[in-house]
Write a structure and sequence with these properties.
The protein has helices spanning 11-24, 27-33, 53-60, 63-74, 119-126, and strands at 37-42, 45-50, 80-84. The protein has 138 residues and is α+β, with helices and mostly antiparallel strands.
Length: 138
């Protein structure tokens, strides 16, 4: 089934039947694939986007089960291709960047005022109970 999309399996059909496929999955697979979004269909198969690389990798573990149910529901063998973030199929993609978020106006962001603490002080404040160990003089 690798690298196949059946003739006549359109984007609209996959999108329409996706809730049926999800309902047929085991609870673990259904929970993982709930966030999957159909990006496109083509010769490579049905391409679904997951929120990030970690989520995509966890879904990849169950790809065979989902691929089987997708093919059963559609009545044709269809490969499942999983991508992270931007939906471009880039395995190194780690998801969207803050400047890609349409709800975030980057011009409205302001730098926090300086608080006079050193970087070591900021780290020890962030990790209560941490101890700073000095290197012995050489």
């Amino acid at each position: 089934m690798v690298g196949q999309a059946a003739e006549g399996v359109s984007h609209a059909l996959v999108e329409e039947q996706w809730p049926v496929v999800l309902a047929r999955l085991a609870p673990r697979a259904r929970a993982r694939f709930q966030a999957a979004r159909l990006v496109r269909t083509g010769p490579e198969g049905a391409v679904f986007e997951l929120p990030n690389v970690v989520h995509r990798d966890r879904c990849e573990q169950l790809r065979g089960e989902v691929e089987h149910e997708l093919s059963e529901v559609l009545g044709a063998m269809v490969s499942l291709v999983l991508v992270a973030g931007g939906g471009d199929g880039d395995a190194g993609s780690t998801g969207s960047r803050p400047d890609d978020d349409p709800t975030l106006d980057m011009d409205e962001l302001r730098d926090a005022p300086p608080d006079g603490r050193s970087s070591v002080q900021r780290i020890t404040d962030a990790f209560p109970g941490a101890m700073v160990v000095e290197d012995p003089p050489t």
